[in-house]
Write a structure and sequence with these properties.
Blueprint: H1 7-34, H2 43-47, H3 59-79, H4 87-110, H5 114-138, H6 140-166
Helix pairs in contact: 1-3, 1-4, 3-6, 4-5, 5-6
């Protein structure tokens, strides 16, 4: 016998999945940002010439908190679509684009590699578009939850490109943070 779940059961199932995916994506994003100081906490970033459209430093953590929460919800929608065709591919693409996303901050803020960060951003956009398209085949809601992220990472790519052009010797601005060593 085949039973159909009620709307309440479906909602409860989604909520349980979202209670894992949203905090997980937020935690991963926070951890990646902590690998290297960013924004006002990073002397190298402060020394860069930034384009006029560069938002104030407080915008970035707020935007990323909202975006990571939306990504977690989009993932929850797809994970909760049990039996959907392409679900494994969608989850794999999501993981790949998130991994590239998480690599961006250490590349830019930690290694001071602006051009490599721009290339990374390009890969992130391609993977996020692919993820969004595959998510859309499973649940349109999941695809729409990806749209603000796509807009933001595209804007970030423009900013990264302009910062790269405005700072041709960016790697030499401030030496990377030295590790603390205790001598005996």
């Amino acid at each position: 016998m085949r039973e159909v779940a009620s709307k309440g059961q479906l909602w409860s199932s989604f909520a349980r999945v979202a209670l894992v995916t949203v905090p997980l994506v937020l935690l991963l994003g926070f951890a990646a940002a902590r690998l290297a100081p960013s924004g006002g906490d990073n002397p190298w970033y402060q020394a860069l010439v930034k384009p006029a459209e560069n938002p104030p430093d407080w915008v970035f953590p707020l935007a990323w908190t909202v975006l990571y929460a939306l990504l977690g919800l989009a993932l929850a929608v797809v994970v909760n679509a049990r039996g959907a065709r392409g679900r494994s591919l969608a989850i794999g693409l999501f993981a790949a684009q998130l991994a590239v996303n998480l690599a961006w901050s250490p590349i830019f803020f930690g290694w001071h590699k602006i051009f490599l960060a721009l290339v990374t951003n390009g890969a992130m956009i391609v993977l996020a578009i692919a993820t969004t398209l595959v998510f859309g085949r499973i649940r349109s809601t999941a695809a729409w939850l990806m749209v603000p992220y796509l807009a933001w990472i595209s804007f970030a790519a423009v900013l990264t490109y302009k910062i790269d052009r405005l700072n041709p010797n960016a790697e030499a601005l401030v030496a990377p943070a030295a590790s603390a060593q205790i001598g005996l």
